[in-house]
TrEMBL record:
<keyword id="KW-1133">Transmembrane helix</keyword>
<protein>
    <submittedName>
        <fullName>Uncharacterized protein</fullName>
    </submittedName>
</protein>
<feature type="transmembrane region" description="Helical">
    <location>
        <begin position="26"/>
        <end position="46"/>
    </location>
</feature>
<keyword id="KW-0812">Transmembrane</keyword>
<keyword id="KW-0472">Membrane</keyword>
Length: 53
């Protein structure tokens, strides 16, 4: 079972970073976070499909 993620805490930290970082760095961090979440979702779906077959 994949680990649980505290999304409220993640978004709270992103808001804090947005106030402290320059916009270009913040958006780069946001893109990195999106890639991590997308990889997590794809891995989760692949795991579920692997169990069905």
């Amino acid at each position: 079972m994949p680990p649980r993620v505290n999304w409220k805490g993640v978004f709270r930290e992103l808001r804090l970073l947005a106030t402290q970082l320059q916009p270009a760095r913040f958006f780069a961090l946001y893109v990195l976070l999106f890639i991590i979440v997308a990889a997590y979702v794809v891995g989760y779906i692949a795991d579920k499909l692997g169990r069905i077959q």
